[in-house]
Amino acid sequence: MTRPLVEVRDLKMHFPIHAGLLRRQIGAVRAVDGVSFDIREGETLGLVGESGCGKSTCGRAVLRLYDITDGEIVIDGKAIGHEDQNSLRHVRPTMQMVFQDPQASLNPRMTVARIISEPLDEHTKMSGAEKRARVLELMDKVGLNPTFASRYPHEFSGGQRQRIGIARALALNPKFIVCDEPIAALDVSIQAQVVNLLEELQDELGLTYLFISHDLSMVRHIADRVAVMYLGKIAELAPRDDLYAQPLHPYTQALLSAVPEPDPAQSDNQGERIVLRGDVPSPANPPDGCNFCTRCPAVMDVCRRIDPDFREVTPGRYVACHLYDPEHGGTAPEQTGGANPGTAQARTGTYPSTQQGGNP
Amino acid sequence: MPSGDRTVLEVRGLRTAFQTRSGSVYAVNDVSFDVKRGELLGVVGESGSGKSVTMMSLIGLLPMPPARIEAGEVLLDGEDLLKASPARLRNVRGGEVGFVFQDPMTSLNPVFPVGFQIVEPLRRHMGLSKKAARDRAVELLELVGIPGARARLDDYPHQFSGGMRQRVMIAIALACDPKLLIADEPTTALDVTIQAQILELVHKLRDELGMAIVWITHDLGVIAQIADRVLVMYGGQVVEQAPVRPLFRDPRHPYTRALLKTIPSVTGERAAKLQVIEGQPPILGAFPTACPFRDRCPLAFERCHAQNPAREVVAEGHDVACFHPSAQGAEAVA
Ligand SMILES: Nc1ncnc2c1ncn2[C@@H]1O[C@H](COP(=O)(O)OP(=O)(O)O)[C@@H](O)[C@H]1O
Ligand SMILES: Nc1ncnc2c1ncn2[C@@H]1O[C@H](COP(=O)(O)OP(=O)(O)O)[C@@H](O)[C@H]1O
Ligand SMILES: [Mg+2]
Ligand SMILES: [Mg+2]
Questions:
Q1: pLDDT tens track for B271-323
Q2: Are residues B82 and B213 in the same domain?
Q3: Structural domain span for residue B275
Q4: pTM for the complete prediction?
Q5: CB contact under 8 A, B248 and A276
Q6: How would DSSP label each residue in A303-347?
Q7: CB of B18 closer than 6 A to ligand 2?
């Protein structure tokens, strides 16, 4: 079993809330509140959930764009969770990010060539000619016409601007890329082009992705495994086919049933849809017990008292829910086996590593 | 499904263009459609295909200039709104026709409490007393599923979550019992769970109040769930119209076919590679004299470059604007 490229354990990112004249801290937004996952080399882990659940914060924290509150992060064998920003400089090239809004993340006053070569200026000792050659190579790789190198971002369409952002992220030959809603701002027909590009680059360069999105159908397309987040925590993590075929956590079930299927014959089955009531609680003041207990259709007494552990309930499938915890009267789910037992087998053993009992 | 067959809105040959510094933009070109009582017409098409401009043309919401409505009729219960006075149009808006737009923050006034924003049209259009209008406002907020409605009348828009604001917008649109509700991407910015709540509400409005609804979206999943009939727009034109099931089962226009192939779903077959429609949408710098889809169409032939196909009926309630024999029902070649 190859070692995962990315290992995250009990990651917490809390933002302080200050108030009053003295700006005293009166609380904290628990944007990410103890999440654990692995990403294997060459794999895409999808991270889904509704807006505000902590996906972006999680992605940024893993790349250490924040000083994290707590937890461990290991990337490519290096523990980076508590390194200072100065020593992080050496690992920065291996990990990159692609943002949602290509418009906002590209400097409008820089040419495409300068935007793409900026990381090269920063982290390499390449000559001007070498950088120029690298920029043209990158533009070609992401499907941009290299003759446009001296144009400015506003001269490009949304999809092309996202290609510029991807080219820049690739400049330093990273191994791991966090894609934070990279297609959310694009038109449907353009979304497919960008997703196909990301997949081709992954095959060609052996990239590892954390693919953040609220689009469950697109994540089903691109991800190998999927983590579902709710209010700062991971509710469920499973191989893609298992998760979509048989979601275990009541939140995953509700989320999937809310996606309108492009099939009018199914619109008659309205009754089967689980419509969640009420709003998501504030991450500054999450409920006691399970953080989904205020909206869960299957809520039990224990859920309001005890926060369920994030446990491996069948090989490779992790759920934080008392329904599947025999200790609290739950039952282990039946094993689905997935569409293809071979791949299910291969996926077993990736996060969180098999035995983590007694390790909260 | 309710089938009140009374036509509420009938649009004929609508043409809207913009005069800009860099030339004209022919945004809407000879668009015709109608909507019946108790019917939900879904409108799909990629961005820039003219969906919003069409709907804004109907009730005088476009800035003129730069916009100009060059031809057409917009019959609301037989009355041509393109000939109506500005005063009459003001009455129609928020009265007989309700609107919901994608971003509630741009349509709700941030400096007034939401209660006021519902009460005000009720008093203006329906002449209700202050007390009666407030009671009706509470009823409406309850109808759209806002908990503790009476206590929230004096709250400001920023005190509501995104989903709640969108419901407030719907409540305002519904305030004066409109015959017609026009919703332009009303759930695009919302999470799926909130979207599901709103779609459930819309079903109820159509079925229980018999409202005629036009629902614009780029999400074919949403269309499949709520539409009775679908209009597919491309390059400022209607390229196909059909009842929802035939549209998904037997799409005729090459653009509709391509569109249906590009969407991934959460159930069903998972494609190894996503289909893409290669190329770019057309530049609308001249009035179209050829098929707007010709440059991206796998089936385009000579005639498509020389003439703009008119909509031809291919089955009951189903029409398509395409010269290729496969659109008329012959087996596709490619
Ligand atoms: N810099 C910050 N300071 C305070 N709160 C923040 C900050 N960044 C994000 N948050 C809060 O953390 C929560 C999670 O946000 P985010 O990670 O952006 O969610 P998502 O990407 O899933 O929409 C939200 O409640 C958000 O308001
Ligand atoms: N104020 C305007 N000035 C010039 N062109 C405009 C204006 N508003 C819209 N357009 C153009 O009209 C066309 C149709 O736009 P729109 O109806 O908004 O598309 P959709 O709603 O289908 O995305 C587009 O080409 C758009 O650029
Ligand atoms: Mg985000
Ligand atoms: Mg629009």
A1: 888 888 888 788 888 899 999 999 999 999 999 999 999 999 999 999 999 99
A2: yes
A3: 7-96+176-328
A4: 0.86
A5: no
A6: GGTSPPP-EEEETTEEE--GGG-GGGT--PPPP---S-HHHHHHH
A7: yes
